[in-house]
Amino acid sequence: MATADKSFTASIDLTTGHVVGLEADLVEGLGVDGVGARIFESLKSLPSTLLSGVTKDVSRHLEAGDHDCAAAAFIGHRTEGSFGLGVVDADLVAALRRIEVEQVDNARRIEFALLRAAVAQENGAWDLAGKDAEFILDRNGAQSDAERAALRLTRGIAAAKCGRAETAFAIIRGVASDPTTDPGNRAWAYYNLSSLLKQQDEDQERFAELGAGMFATTGNSKMVAMSRFRAAESRATRDPQSALPMLDIVLDGLSKDDPVTRELSGRILFRRALLSERIGQTKLGYEAAVEAARHLRGLFGAEGELCSALALAKRLGELLALDVQAIAQEFAQIAPKVLGDEHEVRKRVARLLEQYLSLIHISE
Predict the structure, then answer these.
(1) Rounded distance, CA 126 to CA 230, Å?
(2) According to the model, what pLDDT value does residue 335 have?
C-alpha cells in the first residue's frame, strides 16, 4: 500500500503467523514519521479483530447449550480471512474446547473436527489438535492421501508437544516412509523429524537436508532455506568451518525483495558472524554482522534481531580497533525501545563493573 510519499509492504509467514513490514520513501527527502509503524500495528491486529466475532458467535450458542449450532457458526466463519494466518486467540480456542464433537450433527462432524484441529494448531493447542486428528482418522474421515498424511503428522506433533518424543518420532517417520504420502507432507515429516533430534545429532542434518530436497520439489523456497539453515546449524556443532559455506548456499537462494526472507537473511548472516568469531575469523564476523544489520534495518517486527546484530558488530569492530561510533549510536537509539528496562540494568551493571575494576591495583 502507499501514501502520498511512502510505500509500505507487509508479509505474513503463514507457517508462524509472524508479520514483517517494510517502509520506503516514494519521494526522496520526504517522510511522515510513524506512518509505517501505525500501518504495521494495524495489520498485526487485524486477524485477531476478525476472530473476535467468531468467538462471540460460538460462545453465544454454547451458552444456550447448543453444541451443534456452535460448530455450525464456527464453520460458517471459515471464509473470514483470518483462519490460516497463525493467529493466537486464546478466547476462541477456549470456546472451541467446550464443543463436544459427539454432540455435533454427523453431517458436519468431520468438517468441524478438521477446522478445529487447524485452528488449534495455529494457536499451539496441540492436545486439542491431536485429539481431533485422531477422531477423524479413527472414523476414516480423511478424503485423500494428502489429508490422511497431514492428520497423521498432526498426531505425531501433538505427541511430541505432550512429551512423548519416541511415539512422535515413530508416527512421523511412518509418514515420511509411507509411499502414499504426498511430497508436501513428506517434506514436513522430514523437517519435523529433524526438530525432534538434538542439534549435535548427525541425523538432524540428514533429515533437514531431506526436507530441503522435498520442499524444493513443491516450490516452497522459504522452507528450503529454513531446512538448510537447520542442517547448517547442526553441522556447526561438529565442524563450524564447513558450516559457513552451507550458510552461504542458503543466503544465495533467498529473495532480496520479500520482507520475511529479508529478515531470515539477516538472521542467517548474524549466525554466520557468530560462527566466524568462534573460529577466530573476527574480520569476517564483523563484516557479516554489519551485513546482517543492513538486511534488518527498516524492517518492522525485526527490531530485536537488528539490536543483536548491531551489538555484535560493535563488539567485533572494537576488537579490530575500527571506528564503530555510528554503529554504537544506532544501537543506543534502538536498544531502549527493544530491551526497555533491561537495557538500563545492563548499562548500570557495566558502569559498576568499570568502577570496580578501576579500584583494583596489582601490588608489586
Answers:
(1) 23
(2) 84
Give the closest residue to 156 by CA, choosing from 197, 102, 192: 192
Do the Cβ atoms of 305 and 270 come closer than 8 Å?
yes
Q: Which residues have a Cβ under 8 Å from the Cβ of 127 and sit 6 or more positions away? A: 158, 161, 162
Instruction: Identify each DSSP E strand in the chain by its residue range.
Output: 6-12, 19-25, 299-300
User: Which three three-digit cell numbers place residue 250?
Assistant: 542458503
DSSP state of 101: G
**Positive or negative CA dihedral for 185, 189, 190, 195?**
positive
Left if phi > 0, otherwise alpha if psi is -120 to 50, otherwise beta: which for 126? alpha
Nearest to 70 by CA among 97, 38, 46, 43: 97
Residue pointed to by grid coordinates 555484535: 312
Q: What's the confidence (pLDDT) of residue 342?
A: 57
- Give the strand pairing for 299-300 and 19-25: antiparallel
- Count other C-beta atoms under 10 Å from residue 114's C-beta: 20
Full strand arrangement of the beta sheet holding 299-300 = 6-12, 19-25, 299-300
Chain-wide mean pLDDT for the chain? Answer: 81
Q: Can you give the pTM of this predicted structure?
A: 0.75
Residue corresponding to grid cell 518424543: 165
**SS3 of 86, please?**
coil
